[in-house]
Amino acid sequence: MEINKQLAKELEVQEWQVDAAVKLIDEGNTIPFISRYRKEATGSLNDEVLRKLFERLTYLRNLEEKKQQVLSVIEEQGKLTPELKKQILAAETLVVVDDLYRPYRPKRRTRATIAKEKGLEPLANLIRLQLTKRPLEEDAKAFLSKEKEVLTVEDALNGARDILAEAISDEADYRIHIRDLTMKEGTLISTARDEKAQSVYENYYSYEEPVSKVAGHRILAINRGEKEKFLTVKVGAPEERILRYLEKMVISNENPHTTPVLKEVIADSYGRLIAPAIEREIRNVLTEKAEDGAITVFGKNLTQLLMQPPIAGQVVLGWDPAFRTGCKLAVVDPTGKVLDTTVIYPTAPTTEKKIHDAKETLKKLISKYHVTLFSVGNGTASRESEQIIVELLKEIPEKVQYVIVNEAGASVYSASALATEEFPNFDVGQRSAASIARRLQDPLAELVKIDPKSIGVGQYQHDCNQKKLGETLTGVVEDCVNKVGVDLNTASASLLGYVSGISKAIAKNIVAYREENGRFRTRKELLKVAKLGPKAYEQCAGFLRIPGGENLLDNTGVHPESYEAAEKLLKSLGYSEEDVKAGNLKDLGRKIRDYKKTAEMLGIGEPTLRDIVKELEKPGRDPRDEMPRPILRSDVMDMKDLKPGMILKGTVRNVIDFGAFVDIGVHQDGLVHISQMSDKKFVKHPLDVVSVGDIVDVRVLDVDLNKKRISLSMKLGEEKR
Asked: Out of 1.10.10.650, 3.40.50.620, 1.10.10.10, 1.10.3720.10, which CATH number does the structure's domain 2-104 have?
């Protein structure tokens, strides 16, 4: 199939891999399932490649469909030539198909169609032939008609000009050439609507950059500035070159009667019809490319955030900071159950008494529930709350630490129907505090309850195509959830809804079945859940875990279809189920001398065997354990304490196209510009160096207290010299 050939070329993989992946997708298999359990079929294509493949497959199939529609319409008109058919079938984008279709598309009434209705097309054709030996005014006299409202020679010639201008603008080859030339040599120009107006867009008040070089984040910033009416934006094209090109293509005979008219027509066709359309197309292309880049960065940041390691086994006090309305607290046990909630008023407007009462309340909660960790939201009054906490920690004998947590989306969650269902008796503040505590205990389980777009790890997310952004981020959450695996007996419906093959309705049915029948003892029991048939079971079973179930393999990533092979492998190497339980299989992989031969003996593929070994060596393994853990703090710094040259440890909070924001414990995140990320190599994109959640060493470059800006560097070598 041609589409598969093209996909193989684009993705730089073998055609057989694409054939297999497309077949599996068409059979209704999910991307996480194909990536994890159909490695033999696809040659181990990972989830990232498979999602790109799926996206391009959808686009190319839509393109094919569009081509067939266009061919059918033109054929009905009796105007389909072999040459045109060949051009349409060879088109690689929807834009080119539209270019080729333009002359045949049913038109609304234009100046040209009105002129044709007045019978002026023969005059236009006469001019186009460029053979007339007399002034055009004499030829035009034949077309005068009171009835058709062609009253003067000028009326006739103007109508003919309109017909020719539209014909030139409809010529696909001209448009393709002009578009390519403008993309290569054009410039993006932005100017201020009011030079005196203060705004964040002042860098773009007098700005010009080649279209081919404009960075994605600048395009999105300019678009927003235009939308907010601070900027006027246009695409500057190499107009002289374009007009000379059109003259060369249109004027075939130097005729003193027709050449001046055709030059006027060409200038009108370009200025009125071609240039505005191409400007729109180029800006759409630039925006789409910039949005795709922003969405990719957002997706990678979200992956890192979701994959942050859980802090297990601790009683956590969630703290939702605020000023006037008070700080909402929620104490949560190691399983995520809320033990207590209250409100304290230690932040402005406050009094010494209120601060004292707040500390007393906190001491009682710490003592009563054995709180070991505070999870503090990073919103309004976070800094002031942090100071109170540090003062408190110095007054108590217990060893308690705190973490500043990104609270983005907590307020969205607390006001949602899901939060109301989960905590019917809590107000929004209590729900938010509980969520802030839980997102430290298990970031993934908590963050899946929030619309990914509200989690706030990206830039310009509100300016992007919301449908595309939503689909990408949902895919990211799916991949993370399935990579980690989900405890079938504790997972919420919102978490289960992201598991491969499980719809929102089935997720609710699983929870209802669990509430009615108690814990799941085996994965097979899933088949008793309403609407969960064999296909859904095949897709989801490997990603669901049952700790302490009847079959030990139910708590691993080994798929039920491979249980027999896993059991056979253990037996052949002299291991029992007890060895698996006791964790005595750490060297299992080394005992297999020939993977290919062993896989054949077991009747499975080599990639599946390697996955089984990995799972048996570390049953119930959590891939998040390999990620950097959050920094636990017990002291506080103020922005005024920062001095240039200081070396500090920080957590990467957000990565954008031009740098990364790092939390260094002073409430205001500092920016490491892309130019300050490495002194060893050129950094093409910040994501090549850092990810959200990374713990990094940074050097303070500059502190602007008025603007609340901190400039940081990851180039530490300069300080040490």
From this structure: 1.10.10.650
